Amino acid sequence: MSRAKGNVAEERAVAFLQERGFFIVERNFYSRFGEIDVIATKNKALHFIEVKSGVDYELAIQNITPKKLFKLIKTGDVYMSKNKLNVDFVYDAVIVTPKEIDLVENITL
């Protein structure tokens, strides 16, 4: 997928999250392990959110591989350490397709 399409999906995901009461803290946080697309808060919890898009739900969610999850978790650890945070947190995904957007909570189970 092109970076432009990824940016459009991320913009749609951010609007979707904000409509559901999330406060966007940061976008595109990088560490040596990888990137977190969106960092947000809701109900006193920090949400590290991976945005995936595709022509349908199945194709998009299949891109969240064990390797990608590992990188997401390591990058979340870096963010928590760098900002000296001691708060509840969770790893989520937002799946963006041409027809819908879905929030998949706690993808590390």
Give the beta-strand count: 5
Number of domains: 1
Run of helices and strands: HEEEHHEE
Would you tell me the structural class of the helices and strands?
Answer: alpha+beta
Spatial gap, N to C terminus: 27 Å
Q: Which percent bin holds the helix content?
A: 25-40%
Mean pLDDT: 93
Q: Provide a count of the helices.
A: 3
Shape: globular
Key terms:
109 residues, alpha+beta, Trna Endonuclease, Chain: A, domain 1, 5-stranded mixed sheet, 5 strands, 36% helix, globular
In short:
This protein has helices at residues 3-19, 57-61, 66-82, and strands at 23-31, 34-42, 45-53, 89-96, 101-104.
Tell me what the structure shows:
This protein has 109 residues and is α+β, with helices and mostly antiparallel strands. The chain has a single domain, classed as Trna Endonuclease, Chain: A, domain 1. Helix content is 36%, strand content 36%. It contains three helices and five strands. It has helices spanning 3-19, 57-61, 66-82, and strands spanning 23-31, 34-42, 45-53, 89-96, 101-104. Strands 1-2-3-4-5 form a five-stranded mixed beta sheet, with helices on both faces. Strand 4 (89-96) and strand 5 form a beta hairpin. The model has no long low-confidence stretch (mean pLDDT 93).
Which helices and strands, and how do they pair?
Elements: H1 3-19, E1 23-31, E2 34-42, E3 45-53, H2 57-61, H3 66-82, E4 89-96, E5 101-104
Parallel strand pairs: 3-4
Antiparallel strand pairs: 1-2, 2-3, 4-5
